[in-house]
Amino acid sequence: MSTTKALDNFADCRMVNVTIPLIGRQAFQADGVLRQLSHPQMEIQFPTLTLPLDRIDPAGKWRLSFDKGISFLTVWAEFARTLNPNLVELTITHSETNSHIRRDQRVDTEIFLRFWQGGDNRHGLKPLRTRVNLSGYGISFQTGVSLAPNSLVELEMTLPGIKLETIQCLGRVVRATEKMAGDFDTAFDLVNISRDDVEKVIHFCMTEQFKNMQSKARILAATLQPFTEDPPE
Q: Which residues of the chain fall short of a pLDDT of 70?
C-alpha cells in the first residue's frame, strides 16, 4: 500500500505518538497533534511540549505512529522546518501499516510489585508501587541491583483495578542498563506464566491503554481550536 493511500485510511486520526531524533543518536517520545497534511508534507503540533530545538538532529529520522482500531500506521519523516517552538513541518519518506497483536500491547503504568531470586529471603518483602512498562510478553522497571542476563527472578505483580489481580511467575532478564549509580533499567521476559494470567495482564494493559486514549482525547479536544502562530493580544 502506498503512503498516500495509507494516510487516506488514517485521515480521521489526529493524535500521533512521535519519536524525535536528538543529536548523539538519542531520541525521546512525545504526543503530538496532526494539524495539517498535504502529502508529502505534514505539520505536527506539540500542545504540552516546547521542543528542544537546539538538541534535535536535523538529519535524523522522525517516527510517527497513528492508531485506528486494531491497526496502526507508522510513518517515517525528515525534518523540514520549525514553524514555532511547538509546531514543526516534516517531509514523509515512507510508511508501514500493521495490526496489533494483543500480547504485544505495551503500557507505561504503575502496579504493586515485588521480586526476588532463588535463595533470597522473600519474607518481609513488601509489594511496592512501581512504575513499569508492561505487556503480555514482558516487563521492565528500575531495579536497585544489577541482574545477570538470562538469570531468573520470581515476580509477584498485583494489578490495580476494580478487582486486584495478583500474578506470580518467573522473569528472565533480557537486559539491564545502568541509568544512574546503583539503579538499573531492567527488562524481563515473562516465563512460566499461565494462560489465564497472560489474559489478566493483556486485559489490564488494554484497560490502561483505553484510559490513556481518553486522556489524549481531552488533549486533542483542547487543541482543536482556531490555531494562530501568534498569541492573542
A: 1-6, 9-13, 67-72, 98-104, 119-124, 212-233
Is CATH 2.30.110.70 the classification given to domain 3-100?
A: yes
- Asked if residue 114 lies in contact with residue 126, where contact means CB atoms within 8 angstroms, the answer is yes
Residue with cell 483495578: 161
* pLDDT (tens digit per residue) in 135-146: 888 999 999 888
Contact 155, 201 (CB under 8 A): no
Q: Show the cell assigned to 57.
A: 538532529
Q: Copy the grid coordinates of residue 220.
A: 486533542
DSSP one-letter code for 124? T
pTM: 0.52
Which one is the CATH code of 104-213: 2.40.50.100, 3.40.50.720, 3.60.10.10, 2.40.10.220?
A: 2.40.10.220
CA dist., res. 117 & res. 81, Å (int): 51
